[in-house]
Amino acid sequence: MSKQLYFLFVHPDRRRSHTNRTIFEHVRTLENVTAVDLYESYPGFHIDVALEQRRLREHDVVMIQHPIYWYSMPPLLKLWMDEVLELGFAYGPGGTALAGKALQLSVTTGGGPEAYTAEGMHAHPLETFLLPWAQTAQLCKMSWLPPLVLHSARRASELEVQAHAEHVRAHAVSLINPAFVREGT
Question: Quick one: fold of 5-176?
Answer without folding.
Answer: Rossmann fold (3.40.50)
